[in-house]
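User: Show me sequence and structure for the first protein, then do the same for the second.

Assistant: Starting with the first protein.
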Amino acid sequence: MAKRPIKNRILRAAVLAGGLATYVLLACQGKKVAGPCDGGYTDSDSVWHVDTLAVAKHVTVNGIWGVTPCDVYAVGSVTDSSGPQGVIWHYNGSSWSVVHTTPNAEFHDVYKVSSASVWVVGVSSPESYPGGSLIAHGNGTQWDEHFSDPPARGLLAVWAPDDQNVYAVGQRGTILSFAHGSWRREDNPSLEGLNPPDIYDVWGRPASDSGYEVYAAGAGGTYGGVLMRRFPVGTGARWGEVFSSLVFVPSYENHFAGVWVDSQETIWVLETYQDRIMYDFVLYRFQHNNWTLLDLPAGSGSYYGALRGDTSGVIYLLGCRGVFRFEGSNWSSTYPEPVAFTLNDVWPSGTELFVCGNSDSCGVVLRTDRFTSVSGQP
């Protein structure tokens, strides 16, 4: 079995009670819900609006991103009797469709640069660990693929502020960059060794002088989570460690599972640490040249997935009881109850929130435009 990214391994959902459970089950049977681009929602009383992408023996929907609420991509895999195939879905504001598939593969993340440029990364031969790197670039109708060139392990995350600055990270410490028409593997002394750990997320922002500040979050071997920054050197670059776990328990396995860098010079890092039985989580914030621990939302449950934000500095966390939003100093939630799917990724469009996830046999995207206060604020 392939080793999966933290965001796809740590969230196993409980079953919803009451009417919403019925609503979710109907979604897996193919119920369609109107979107924001075709006259609004059919159910004005529902908080979650569920779109079914696939029903099969095994389905994952790992990543989601878009440019507008009417131009969104989701990626993952569908497994049937012939094995796994990577799948890219597109949403036009009213319905989802499959726009690309790759045999013996699983896509893990997507970043949409513009209406004519989409970058997708994943793993070839996902039934083994580590797999090979898989990169797809498309304009919506035509897709070009690259397999392990240069030689690299499976890829788990991608960030692409433009088509000449694309960064992908993944298994066994892999960091790749794309510029001037070619991919290159970048030096990463922070994770040297025979079996370097995985890197789970990458994000960045424009640098104060020129170019971009790029950060990658992952595991730091036996020393917990590690956050790395890319430092340009001549025509190349070198990565160096800038932050590591403040909460380290020797008997636990620590990872930095997510990173978000906003335009307000703030860095957010989500850490998970586990023993054989349970997971625990820590949220860090770097602000005013200082790292601090931030209280997680009260009543949010024990599991967290993706960490993302928007251009205004609002932060989103996926939890086993919904999607949690941090704005200023307060948490709010879209739905303060357990959800029926593993939640893997979130894209805040500005007017609506898109969340992708799956049960073992059903892949979905959940959409919402509503937030309610979380009782018992930290």
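Switching to the second protein now.
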Amino acid sequence: MIGPATRSLVLAGMLASLLLVMVGWGFEPFKPLGFVIAATSAGALWLAMWWQTSRIERIDAGHILGFAAIAVTLRWGLLALAGDSFPLSDDVYRYLWDGKMLANGINPFALPPLASELQSLRDNVVWPFINHPHLPTIYPPAAQLVFWGTYSLFGLDLMAMKLVLSVFEIATLAILWIWMRRSGIEPTAWVAFALCPLLIIEFTISTHLDVIGLPFLIGTWLVLFSGPQRRPFLAGMLFGVAVLVKFLALIFAPLLLWELRRRELVAFIVGAATTVVALYAPLVILGGFDVFGSLGTYLAQWHANGSLAYVFIYLFGQEVARWLSAVLLIGWVAWHAVRRGDVYERLLWTFAGFVVLSPTIFPWYLIWALPLVVARPLPPFVWLAAIFPITYDVLVVLYATGEWTELWYIRLLVYLPFFGLLLFMRRWPHTWGIPRYA
């Protein structure tokens, strides 16, 4: 009789094969619907694989090596098949453009790509494909450092940028393994993370910069909560880097600060401040204090895949809705910072507030919480991790009509089960025990 270990390996192989076929099949404009179907099927296979791994009585090194081999082979296969194409996101062109600006001594936060002052820097490789070229960059200085380094070493090589970020993905998998082992989390949670389609789509295929910050965020948790002793100064430095890759990581700051004693708190803040000063100083020297670029525009105008925030926008208008969402989110984050309970589960619930109240939830944002989802697999968040690639349905409409339109019934498919599971958990919390991952 075939056991759960063999079944889970077979399912992992099927998942990898589906993703490889999906990329090898191509992403011509008439095929995004096929991608949505394939990505959703991959989510279902991932859930089935995870369920089978959770049934393994004792997972040994051989099983882990088998899953790791599938994960690594899948990534290298996807890199080879996709090459320097980026069918689901054009952010990578901005990354290299920012790196090029820095290498030429220009502050990317001060001037948008369309600025006449930058006409001499325009090229045929990345400049024509930059999204929102009328806006200066939004990406914080830790990300900018990677962009500058990649451009300085490899020039406008798109594949080089993809390979550089794949190094950060490998680092994420390595630090995640250490954190999970020291936290008493079952190895099957690492398997679930390494083979999650959402992770692979957003990093290996789309090359989103969030992968730069993830090892630093996990490292923060490791040195604060899972090591032999707390190292708050180092944790502050690591967290500072994570925040300066993407400001989204700030959502975790209140809870982390609340967990520290007075001296630890001071050390953490000093460590974070040291990182902030070290990374912002070169930009200030280069171009003054204009170091936030289009962040204000993003906060005031962007929206995608919102849930409750969309209801607020419909009822109260965009400006009032954004302020209302911000106030509610601050309260939510503060409550989960001070309440008792498992620190990692509280971090996950903290992020849930962002998912519910933010008007902008791109699929790659969820990656910041994915380590917590596999470590504390609460059903609403597992559902989101499995289903959220379906929100690329916007590409179906975009390729057909030239307009970015979110299909309301797809959002219902994503969020109705999510909110239903949230309400069920709040009503009957005793029915949802944390399984062997904790």
